[in-house]
Amino acid sequence: MHLTIPIDSPFSLYTLPYSIFRPAVGEPARAGVAIGDWVLDLAALEADGVFDGPALRGQSIFAQPALNAFMALGRPAWDEVRARLLDLLAPVARNAPVAPEVAHALRPRVSVELLLPANIGDYTDFYSSREHATNVGAMFRGPEQALMPNWLHLPIAYHGRAGTIVAGDTMLGRPHGQMLPSGATTPVFGPTAELDFELEVGFFIGSGSRMGEPVTIDKAADHIFGLVLVNDWSARDIQRWEYRPLGPFLGKNFATSISPWVVPLAALEPFRCSGPHQDPAPLSHLRGAENWAFDIQLQATLQSAAMRAAGLPPLVISRTNFRRLYWSMPQQLAHHTSNGCVLRPGDLLASGTISGSTPDSYGSLLELTWGGERPLVLPTGETRSFLEDGDRLALSGWCERDDYRVGFGEVAAEILPARD
Length: 420
Ligand code: CA
Description:
Number of helices: 10
Shape: globular
Low-confidence stretches: none
Distance between the termini: 53 Å
Number of strands: 26
Radius of gyration: 22 Å
Structural class: alpha+beta
Largest sheet: 8 strands, mixed
Bound molecules: calcium ion
Helix content: 10-25%
């Protein structure tokens, strides 16, 4: 069997992202790797005895409905599996047929059901884009106090809700909540009128840490399994009324979407680069992780129901890049554990909204429309300050060389009307 991979496929020979899938209704979930338009069934390969290196020999890691056990094994196991997969798939680069045991384990990607890649015990969302924090601060508190005094000294975050994280393409009902209408003195309860997205990238914790033992910044890489796209859905009117003094709560925790394929850190190594200069210099526990930015192109698209009906393609409403993030993943991880807070395999740490410096590179509608002051105009003539029922919002991300991509695929949702 010959495998061909389209040049613009996010899942080239160099991506090899992991997820959990069900081959058909009623069949048990298991781990897989995406390659072109196919999914390689890792449980089938494991049963064939393909993973016979020292870290995995004799283990049953992939016939499970979550990647947590594989994540917990640590970098030697991740490196061993990736090297074995690259070896098994090497014929693809030569346009030669793959071995029978590989052909036997391939499933068409369109035919499988993708599930959450891990049991996510804890979810933390950072606030690490300086441009985003400055924009939101300017809108909520005025330009003089845009950046809070602590922002340049530590990666700010809030604890999110792991139970409402969903993977892949979904339908999202408009949430209800309490808010204070403009000019009113008493709050009301009802469907949010300011439903928004946040374009983020998150990473999964592989091997965990022990309670009371900080992970130093130079050890952070050993704990980072891989990355996904994250959409931290936000209801701005609910958020604005509730967020002081303890931060985001019901304006955020009704849903968070992630892309189902986890791109291993090893796949992103060729796209590593230096991030923004940090001034003032961070305190010592946050120092020593230069060149921890990654050149990942990111975009958000919007397609209204009327655009779909007219056959119009989704409109790109934002283009930005992960390399712009001020606080890096090792800094986030080191700071998170600096008080002894524990990390467990499968925990998700997200970046916060990634905004660039120009208005077409902002990672939320709040910023793109400047709080609704400058609505977007769609090709149908419709305008958007925030998301309307029937809108489909999608995020995608990829790294690029001349002849291949290392990509994340897409994470999207269509907005449904609020429940009665
Ligand atoms: Ca966020």
